[in-house]
Structure formats: C-alpha cells, structure tokens
Amino acid sequence: MSRLIVKPRLSIALVTPLNPMPNGLSDYSETLLPALAEHVDVTVYSDCGTPSNPLIAARFDVRPVPMLLRDYAEYDLRLYQIGNSNHHASAFDMLRRLPGVVVLHEPFLHHGLRNISFSYFRRELMYEQGYVNDEVAQRWAQETDREQLLASPLIGRIVDNNLGLIVHSRAARLVIEQTTARRQLSRAWLPSPITVIPELMPLAPLYEMVEQRLEFDLPPEALIIGVAGTIDPTKEPALVLQAVAQLAGEWPQVLLVFIGDRPWDYGLTDLIHDLNLSDHVRFLGRLDPLERLHQAMACCDMIINLRRPTIGETSGTALRTLSLGRPLVVRATGWYAELPDEVCLKMGLDDGADDLAHVLRDLLASPKLRQRLSRAGRQYIATVCDVRVVAQQYAEFLQMIYSTSALCA
Q: What is the pTM of this model?
C-alpha cells in the first residue's frame, strides 16, 4: 500500500492580483497572505507592479507573472486565484501552460473573459462547446440572462487544467461538478479533487450607529433598511421598494438606503414616485475606501441582500453585513441557502413583496430579534470565516494535493 508523501513546509507560487489593481481578489489575497505564510513558503506572481500595500511589499517577494515560466521548477505547487474579471488574463494564460491548484471565486467567467477581448472570449467558448462561428459567439457575448449563461459557464479549461479546485460554497461545487460531468462524456480523465473553503472575512469593528448616521446626514431616529452593493435587477430593488411601501404607513420613520453603484435607473425613479416613497429612500452611491462602505452599512438597522438568479457566487456584501453585526435578509437559494438559519432571515425562492414586508415587519418590531441576529452573525464570521481558519484549510488541501501528485509522479 502506497504511503502519502508529506513535506513539512511546501513552497508555493501564488498567482493573484494585488493592489493597486482594483480587484476584490487583491484585498482577498492581501488578507490571506500573512496567515498562509505561517504554513507554507509563498512567492507571489502578480501584474500589480510594485504592491501599494507596504506590508505586502516589505514581507513578500512579488514578481511579474511571466517570470513563472522561468521559475516554475522552484516550487512544489502553483496556486491560482481566479475570478470573473479581466484582471485574471495573465493567470488564466499561465494556467494553460502550468497547471496548478485553482481557487475559483466564481464558477462562471463570462463577464471577465468578455472584458479581456472578444477573441479571447470566443476561444474559451470554442474550447467548452466545440466550433462556434462569429455569429454564435456574438450572440453568447451579448447574452445577459444568467441562467442561460450557466449552461456554458466557460470554466472548461479550468476544469481540465488543474490539480485541485477550491471553491467557497456547495453551490459553486455543484456548478463545477455538472460541468465536469458534461465534459466527461467526451473526455476520459478523472476529475480533480474539489474542496469547499469558506470565503474569508475579517471581523469588522463595532461602529457607533448614531455617530455614523451624522457622518452621512441620515436621521438618528430613523429605522434604516439598507441595500448594499451594485444596484441592478438581480438585487431585486423594485421588490424591495414595494415591500418598504407597505411598511411606510405603519412606521413613518422607515428609511430605505441604497449603498452602491446604480449603472442605470432601471425605472426605479418612477417607481419611487408611484409608490409615494420620495421621503423614504436615499441613494448614497459607491463609497470608497472600504472603511467608508463599512461606516455606511453600520448606519442600517438591517440589510437586505437578495440575489436572483444566483450562479454559485458567494456574496461579500452578505458576509460584510454579518461581520458588522447587522441583521441580514436573503433568499434561500444558492450559497445564501447554506448560511445557518440562526445568522440571517431567509425568504423562499418565489416569495414576493408581501413576504419580504412580513420579514421586515418582524425585524422592525423586535429589537431583541435584531440583537440576536447581530450576535450570531458576528460569531459566524469569527469562527468560520476567520483568516487563520481559512489559511489552515488551504494548507491542508495543498498538502493533500502535493502528496497525491507526488505519488502519481
């Protein structure tokens, strides 16, 4: 019987964005790196140039991504951070040449690949589907229905070119397994190991609500319902407005605050007028840096984070809400359904405005319920999403992949 080969301390090449690249994975990797370095030796490969984070620049050797073609033999494994963004083009190209362990932050890459270039997008569409002409590729490139796009999530090359996969939810794992099953119909190979490691989220400081409301010129006595993140139809803002309209007569002090970009109006201005909600809605827009976003979210008595349809993604906004100790309302679908019932309130997949109004009514009427959810949410972040816990799980999975690869070598 073969024995696993264990190396006390692995040497890892990490391919990732870093600041000043404006990418969520830049922040993610900068949070993960110091904790991961407690378990493995890490050299970073990034297109960021000189890292803008002085702590990262001082502690880690950061090299341009193309240098990995020269250096690859120095490492036991390569670890790729891949998301749905054009900032991962170099990592994606390197993965084609040098397979490794992939952290797939979203099991769906249409938007990122389209933003690299149409030819790049078409190449990956052809890889996943077989030959497609320009007309078909253009039709796929213009498709916006997320459920239609999920039939071909453009992760085929990642499914083929990895030694192991890390995802953040069972929902994401299911997308990958379904893609793998389809591809196995024409390919004879064993799927790589997949593990679920929770999205990391630092525990936020406890902000004083009244103080933050003064900062944003929000009334101290209001009952504030927040919606955070980019405002688009998948966040169901019209449904949220309809629910709040049912509450405004009972609680005149209710205020709905949208915190995030609004790329288009989506008819919300007219709907606010039709529902007579002009005095009950504020738009704060996009807030930078991250601390200012935290401060605005801390103004809220509760936060709604609906998403329909979902495509296996994990919501940083939802985790940030729990970290801030704010009651969270979600739909019981995708990754959201995996959150423990004690940390949030969940609507059914097909529930409408009346159902959301009922959930919000319970929260508005019960400070004790809000306090219980607040404590449970912060406890969840502190135990499940803590960077030290996440880094330990990374290290264990990397060691397993190394041992398995060494046996097969």
A: 0.89
